Amino acid sequence: MDIFRSPRAAQEAHLHGAQWLIIGLGNPGPRYAHTRHNVGYLAIDALRGITPLLPYPGAPATACRTTIDAIPVALLRSTTYMNESGQAVAPLARELGLPPERIVVLHDELDLPTGTTRLRQGGAENGHNGLKSLSAELGTRDYLRVRMGISRPPKGTPVVDYVLGTMDDTPELHSGIEHAAEAARLIVSQGLARAQNEIHRR
């Protein structure tokens, strides 16, 4: 072991060998920490536990490595704003040599009730700017998605104001975050079809 390596270099090496990349979408900084757009960030926090996220060289992101059923996994949160999320994901996916079916994205979903989790591979982005950026930077829509319901805004409330609004701390919110984290674990350990069967029954 080279004791003279910098912490940043050590973090870069630590992710090597990861067989999956799990990304939580959101906006950085305390202003956005508890907004609806940031539920993906919160699901990554549930997955990582006490393992810290550290800056990742070569990408605007913080990351850590964990294991799911002994499978090495990289967990990632971008440090870009939502509409530039792909700039954080694509360099790391290329460096790790991961195909889209090994990339799992956790993100907010207006078309699902708060607390509901649904899984799929590919498909349209439905106006979600974070997903649009990912698709553009990765050159494909075929990555896996953990869709975290935040419900539609009340009539007369602009979508932008709603997704950037602070969430109420409710049991539905907490269960949704836990279900999304569990969904990501199931995808890695059992595959998408089995994960869908388990999560979609709820």
UniProtKB/TrEMBL annotation:
Q: Which InterPro entries match?
A: Pept_tRNA_hydro (IPR001328), Pept_tRNA_hydro_CS (IPR018171), Pept_tRNA_hydro_sf (IPR036416)
Binding locations of tRNA: Y32, Y81, N83, N129
Task: Please name the Pfam families in this protein's record.
Answer: Pept_tRNA_hydro
Under which EC number(s) is this enzyme classified? 3.1.1.29
| Stored CDD domains | PTH (cd00462)
The UniProt entry lists the main location of this chain as: cytoplasm
* Cellular component terms (Gene Ontology): cytoplasm
- Catalytic residues, per the record, are H37 (proton acceptor)
Give the Gene Ontology MF terms in alphabetical order. peptidyl-tRNA hydrolase activity; tRNA binding
Q: Mind listing the UniProt keywords for this protein, alphabetically? A: Cytoplasm, Hydrolase, RNA-binding, tRNA-binding
Residues of the site described as Stabilizes the basic form of H active site to accept a proton = D108
- Write out the similarity annotation: Belongs to the PTH family.
- PANTHER family on file: PEPTIDYL-TRNA HYDROLASE
Name assigned to this protein: Peptidyl-tRNA hydrolase
Give the originating organism: Corynebacterium oculi
Its encoding gene is what?
A: pth_1
